[in-house]
Amino acid sequence: VSEMLQNMCIRNLVRKYCQGVPAERKVQLEQKVVTSAVFRGKKEGYQQSINQPFADTRLKESEINPRVLQLIQGEKIKYVTPVIKYDRNGFKARERLLVLTQSSACVVEMAKIKQKIDYSTLKGISTSNLSDGIVVIHVPEDNKQKGDAILHCEHIFETVTKLCMLANKQNLVKVVQGSLRFRIGSGKEGTMVFTVGQEPQVFKAKNGQLTVV
Prior knowledge:
Layout: H1 2-20, H2 23-39, H3 46-49, H4 66-72, E1 77-86, E2 93-101, E3 104-109, E4 112-118, E5 124-128, E6 134-138, E7 149-153, H5 156-167, E8 173-176, E9 179-185, E10 188-194, E11 202-204, E12 210-212
Parallel strand pairs: 5-8, 10-12
Antiparallel strand pairs: 1-2, 1-7, 2-3, 3-4, 5-6, 6-7, 9-10, 11-12
Helix pairs in contact: 2-5
Domain TH1: 43-213
Pfam family, one: Myosin_TH1
Protein name: MYO1H protein
């Protein structure tokens, strides 16, 4: 009887706690659970990210160019963050916005949508096991897409978590070691190499590979 009462008491305490959790706190916990499943024990910096609350968004909708809002055609915007996008050819760094809506991820330049990736077609999300902020969004090989999107995000755990949750593709996130392959377009592929150095940098090596330090 004592054991039964103890179990009932514990269940009652848990029930009261769950009912008393504010909605915002519940959202945070749900996101952190996904982050743990994807990154725990796999990527450097995860432990330091645990106590850092995720922001609802890094930019307000009012800070987005009205032309972009028109092009999105009324899709509900869920998250926006500044990113650095690397060209697939030449790997030139360009300032962009990553806009996540209810149904797609958009790479935005000022008043233009440079690339729109529907979640239903998203093939995978890759990042390294090191402390860099690189994420590669893999897309299908078709005429609608020029190739995979190579981005640098300041808040990598937050951004990847929100992306995979919105796309409902947590199982497609890969944390790689050493290198990864990405699609350039027209059947071509490139290689990205991850290494450790004294200063963080991203550059095109002499062998043509994108090197992330």
